[in-house]
Amino acid sequence: MDHHLIQESEVEVDNTNSDLLMQIRILKNSLNVLATENSKQSQIIEIKNNKIYELEYECEYLKKQIADFNLRLESLNLYKNNIEILTNEKNKLENENTYLKEQWNEWYSTQQKRITEFLNPIKMNSAFTNLDGEINLSEEMKSFSVLAQEKRQEAEIMKNESTMKKEELISVINLILILLPETQYSKYTNLKNKTKTIVLTILQEIQGLNNAEDAIDEENEDKELIDEEII
Questions:
Q1: Helix crossing, 2-118 with 196-230: angle to 10°?
Q2: What angle do CA 79, 80, 83 make, to 5 degrees?
Q3: How confident is the model at residue 130 (pLDDT cuts 50, 70, 90)?
Q4: Residues 154 and 114 sit within 8 Å (Cβ to Cβ)
Q5: What are the phi and psi torsion angles at 129 (to 5°)?
Q6: Helices marked H in 178-230 — which ranges?
Q7: CA atoms lying within 13 Å on the CB side of residue 193
Q8: What is the pLDDT of residues 4-44, one digit of tens each?
Q9: Whose CA is closest to 139, among 124, 152, 123, 151?
Q10: pTM of the model
Q11: CA-to-CA distance for 146 and 152, rounded, in angstroms?
Q12: Secondary structure (DSSP) of 169-186
């Protein structure tokens, strides 16, 4: 009886051990499956992390590209502004040059007219005759009238010059300097650094020098004519 019970107990233990071994195998297989799936998930995560890293790197590269593009755009805008400024300056200078040419032509025409009238005494004398053609003014009065006319012309020129800008005055000075001997050039430098009042004074000074040069030339021409007549 006892022996039979022992055998039954051993059978039950064997069955229990067999069940445990089966469960252990099942658990082991489950763990292996989970480990495999975990490995696959880890690989997937690593791949995605690498992709994220690549995207971040690409984003940084694109940011640098955008920054470079913005710098180039700023440079282009700066060039555009400079071109607009230069174009405006060019138009301004063209307008000023046109004005200066008109002033210079007016001044030159006035000087030529004075020279022509000076060299044509018959025309000048007609201004001092009556209807009968008789001269009714003394030589002193005629000289005074001519001088007064010249002074009025000079006053008109000075009036126009006083309203000119400093840059315009400098341009007129440079035009007149061309007519003067080169020895005079060094005396009139750095005009841009001088005040408008000083520049205007310099203009009047070189106009006087130019008039003196014209007078000397006229005197030399008269002497040459006299010498030719004597010969």
A1: 40
A2: 85
A3: very low
A4: no
A5: -115, 155
A6: 196-230
A7: 3
A8: 555 555 555 556 767 778 888 888 888 888 888 888 888 88
A9: 124
A10: 0.30
A11: 10
A12: HHHHHHHHHTTS-GGGGG
